[in-house]
């Protein structure tokens, strides 16, 4: 548990405790080692001195032992304990070779226990053993007394160990004092050191706390030490750099967030944020509310598909989650159900930590309306131009009706009886011609009707035939032959028949104009014709309109799809035909290519994706 406590304690305490502990450990180890060295050297010195004294006694007592002069031996022993030695040497006694005690320095009876306490083995120069005596410890030093090679006795002297113990006692106190002083000094030093090291770190911690709370204008003073060059200073400076960077990027983030918000809120177009997986609306700008008629609360959480597309024109949706998608001219619905035409641009992005699609829509309803007005105007102009041919066309059934009715009138006036069979034939003829006239007028009406942007499966050959029925007669009147090479069984295309008819109409009128121009320039004898062919290659339906007209120069070719570009005289052409044609073809995902026609004329090749 104390280990846990230490782990959880502050860095300052950890530094402080570890320094104190290490110093304490080192001082104790030094003290113990010094004590051990001192004790062992003192002990060996003591023993060495004991041996020295013992040997000098053994030298001088050889004679008295041989003569067994006990008084002499006794005085020798007492002499050996004279002066300072008395403190060192506790006792001395001499034995003869049979270990009988000949003399000793004890003032009381000789303690018999001593005799066997430290036996001197034969052939040993000495023997030393620590003995416990009453009140003290004594090193018994035994030295043989030799006469030549014979041992004639032993000298035993007791060296007082208390002498060393007192010294060691004094040393212990000194060491204890030393360790305590060192510990106290280092306690203070390590406390200061720990504070010195950890104070700037604590300050940095406080600063980082402020930053994590989002406060970059922290007021924590970073002390002078941070101006040094040590690691803490480096840490502080890189930390402050980092904080500065975070602050700057935070500011930039807030700015861009604010910029984005203001763009989002004040943008002129409806913008939606959808979640990438289910395409539900996460957010919508005020413009989206205004245009689509929903409140923001109604929009949020609603599937984007609730708004559109409401026709087949925009079936393609935001497929892949991570790609940009642009869909043009699709019909969406407002809350009240009224349609609205929009261009849609979706880009994947992160929105409030969610994978999102930012969908920007542009309301092009007005533009679409203007376009269709323009298309209509152009159509009406063409119809006006075609009026001579159309009048001729309507005139024929009228003539037939006139002839029939005149016949009936003549017969009635002349009082002749009309045979039943003739009457029926004339009436049927009149009725048939009326139907024909009605059909022509109906076709004109259909063509003149304003078309919308809806799409359905259309047979391109049918459109060609409808147009020919309107302007075929006109072409014949202008000596232009029509070659139809329509392949049957080709796939339909996704389009609106009225618009496709307008495309074919424009191409035919252009071809006619180019031929007329060539005729006027003297090429009258040429067999002038317009060839319309259809076909299918793989997934594409193709329609080619070739003519024997004047052809198109490269400089004109580059500009023919521009609106209001024309080479025709004022009043003859507005220069809108091909630009409208191009727009319609693009709307249906098709292409237009210009190639060579018949006898140096021009060919327009249209392709559309096959439907179904
Ligand atoms: N089949 C063609 N042969 C030669 N030139 C052509 C042909 N089709 C178009 N052009 C050239 O392209 C120009 C632009 O054609 P476009 O149909 O856009 O306008 P326009 O026919 O001049 O006028 P509008 O169609 O509005 O009556 C024409 O003026 C003509 O010079
Ligand atoms: Mg034209």
From TrEMBL:
Tell where it localizes.
Cell membrane
Is Cell membrane given among the entry's keywords?
Answer: yes
Q: What PANTHER family does the database record attribute to this sequence?
A: C4-DICARBOXYLATE TRANSPORT SENSOR PROTEIN DCTB (PTHR43065:SF46), SENSOR HISTIDINE KINASE (PTHR43065)
Catalytic activity annotated for this protein? ATP + protein L-histidine = ADP + protein N-phospho-L-histidine
What's in the GO CC field? plasma membrane
The top of its lineage is:
Bacteria, Pseudomonadati, Thermodesulfobacteriota, Desulfobacteria, Desulfobacterales
- How is this protein named in the record? histidine kinase
Domain HAMP: from-to ranges: 195-251
- Species in which this protein is naturally found: Desulfosarcina widdelii
- Biological processes, Gene Ontology terms: regulation of DNA-templated transcription
**What stretches pass through the bilayer?**
15-38, 175-194
Cite the Pfam families for this sequence.
HAMP (PF00672), HATPase_c (PF02518), HisKA (PF00512), PAS (PF00989), sCache_3_2 (PF17203)
The EC number on file is 2.7.13.3
């Amino acid at each position: 548990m104390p280990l846990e406590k230490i782990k959880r304690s502050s860095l300052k305490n950890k530094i402080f405790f570890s320094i104190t502990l290490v110093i304490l450990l080192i001082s104790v180890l030094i003290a113990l080692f010094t004590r051990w060295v001192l004790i062992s050297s003192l002990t060996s010195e003591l023993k060495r001195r004991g041996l020295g004294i013992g040997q000098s006694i053994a030298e001088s007592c050889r004679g008295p032992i041989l003569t067994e002069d006990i008084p002499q031996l006794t005085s020798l022993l007492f002499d050996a304990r004279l002066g300072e030695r008395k403190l060192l040497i506790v006792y001395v006694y001499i034995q003869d070779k049979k270990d009988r005690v000949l003399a000793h320095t004890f003032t009381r009876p000789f303690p018999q226990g001593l005799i066997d306490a430290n036996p001197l083995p034969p052939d040993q120069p000495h023997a030393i053993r620590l003995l416990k005596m009453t009140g003290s410890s004594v090193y018994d030093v035994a030295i043989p007394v030799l006469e030549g090679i014979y041992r004639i006795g032993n000298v035993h002297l007791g060296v007082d160990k208390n002498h060393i113990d007192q010294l060691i006692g004094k040393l212990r106190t000194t060491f204890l004092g030393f360790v305590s002083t060192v510990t106290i000094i280092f306690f203070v030093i390590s406390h200061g050191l720990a504070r010195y090291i950890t104070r700037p770190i604590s300050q940095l911690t406080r600063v980082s706390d402020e930053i994590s709370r989002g406060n970059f204008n922290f007021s924590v003073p970073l002390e002078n030490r941070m101006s040094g060059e040590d690691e803490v200073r480096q840490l502080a400076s890189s930390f402050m750099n980092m904080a500065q960077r975070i602050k700057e990027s935070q500011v930039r983030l807030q700015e861009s967030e604010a910029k984005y918000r203001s763009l989002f809120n004040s943008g002129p177009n409806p913008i939606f944020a959808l979640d990438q997986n289910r395409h539900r609306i996460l957010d919508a700008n005020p413009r989206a509310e205004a245009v689509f008629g929903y409140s923001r609360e109604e929009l949020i959480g609603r599937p984007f598909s609730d708004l559109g597309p409401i026709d087949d024109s925009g079936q393609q949706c935001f497929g892949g989650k991570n790609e940009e998608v642009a869909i043009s001219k699709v019909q969406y619905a407002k809350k009240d159900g009224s349609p609205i035409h929009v261009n849609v641009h979706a880009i994947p992005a992160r929105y409030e930590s969610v994978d999102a699609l930012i969908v920007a829509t542009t309301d092009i309803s007005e533009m679409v309306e203007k376009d269709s007005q323009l298309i209509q105007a152009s159509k009406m102009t063409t119809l006006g131009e075609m009026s001579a041919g159309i009048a001729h066309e309507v005139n024929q059934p009228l003539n037939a009706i006139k002839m029939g009715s005149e016949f009936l009138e003549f017969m009635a006036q002349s009082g002749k009886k009309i045979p039943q069979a003739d009457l029926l034939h004339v009436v049927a003829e009149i009725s048939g011609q009326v139907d024909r006239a009605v059909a022509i007028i109906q076709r004109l009406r259909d063509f003149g009707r304003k078309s919308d942007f809806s799409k359905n499966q259309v047979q391109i050959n049918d459109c060609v035939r409808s147009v020919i029925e309107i302007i075929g007669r006109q072409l014949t009147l202008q000596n232009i032959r029509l070659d139809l090479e329509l392949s049957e069984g080709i796939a339909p295309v996704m389009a609106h028949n009225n618009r496709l008819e307008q495309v074919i109409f424009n191409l035919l009128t252009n071809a006619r104009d180019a031929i007329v121009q060539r005729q006027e320039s003297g090429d009258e004898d040429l067999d002038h014709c317009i060839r319309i062919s259809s076909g299918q290659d793989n997934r594409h339906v193709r329609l080619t309109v070739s003519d024997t007209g004047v052809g198109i120069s490269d400089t004109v070719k580059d500009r023919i799809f521009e609106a209001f570009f024309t080479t025709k005289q004022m009043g003859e052409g507005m220069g809108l035909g091909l630009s409208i044609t191009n727009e319609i073809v693009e709307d249906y995902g098709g292409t237009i290519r210009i190639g060579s026609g018949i006898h140096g004329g021009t060919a327009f090749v249209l392709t559309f994706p096959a439907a179904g």
